């Protein structure tokens, strides 16, 4: 088994571990991540046609439209959903809500762009304001984080089995300063445990922050 170097490796690990059969990616962009996902059935959604040209998958599984329009016509449920579409707080929450409704009971939703390091990274052309949605999800749901050390990034994790009941959130416009002041709670304290035992069994990178309430058996 190869060492995980990036979020695509982590997603493929989840697919193998849980025997997932279906994958949905919101915000395919240049298909860098989408093309690396190995699964029986995968679907991509993006407003730009370049995703269709960049994808190596079946064109019939790539929907060139906004995510709201996709969910309005979608009838399929998925095991794993990756949210990386519009980097704006309200739209990310809408994408989460729609994803939750089309997620299988044992499924997982992953969030990108949850960890801006400074104010510049909160611009819409960068990570945007997804972190504001993530903060409030952490306050409401049972969540965890995978640290992507290869790209100095993080992926938010929400497992439906740990969150079987939908909880509506009244979104508040949090600031980047508040996020950075509480970064340990929203990112580091939720990261996968890095004991040597965990590293050997999960094949994670060497540096992963600990999470006190992380259950090893949930992932190994």
Features:
single chain, 220 residues, alpha/beta, Rossmann fold, seven-stranded mixed sheet, globular, disordered C terminus
Put the structure in a nutshell.
This protein has helices at residues 7-18, 50-54, 67-73, 89-101, 130-140, 176-181, 183-186, 196-202, 216-219; strands spanning 22-26, 41-46, 62-64, 78-83, 103-111, 143-148, 153-159. The chain is an alpha/beta fold and 220 residues long.
Summarize the structure in words.
This protein has 220 residues and is an alpha/beta fold. The chain has a single domain (7-219), classed as Vaccinia Virus protein VP39 (Rossmann fold). The protein contains nine helices and seven strands; from the N terminus they run H-E-E-H-E-H-E-H-E-H-E-E-H-H-H-H. It has helices at 7-18, 50-54, 67-73, 89-101, 130-140, 176-181, 183-186, 196-202, 216-219; strands at residues 22-26, 41-46, 62-64, 78-83, 103-111, 143-148, 153-159. Strands 3-2-1-4-5-7-6 form a seven-stranded mixed β-sheet, sandwiched between helices. Strand 6 (143-148) and strand 7 (153-159) form a beta hairpin. Helix 4 (89-101) crosses helix 5. The chain starts with 6 loop residues before the first helix and ends with a helix. The model is unreliable at 193-220 (pLDDT under 50).
